[in-house]
Design goal:
Elements lengths: L1 H26 L6 H9 L11
């Protein structure tokens, strides 16, 4: 029972840090282009460089 006095505030603090990290990522544009990365895997549009002579 004594350990709950320590573990409950630690768990609340870690949850608050996770929420802050999520909101920071949301505001910085991390989740703007969800379909772009999925479609980039499928297409190989990178031009190949020819060796220099």
């Amino acid at each position: 029972m004594d350990s709950l006095i320590l573990l409950v505030p630690v768990a609340l603090f870690m949850g608050f840090l996770g929420l802050c990290a999520f909101l920071w990522n949301l505001r910085s544009g991390q989740y703007e282009d969800l379909d772009g990365a999925a479609s980039r895997i499928l297409f190989d549009d990178v031009p190949r460089k020819e060796p220099r002579r």
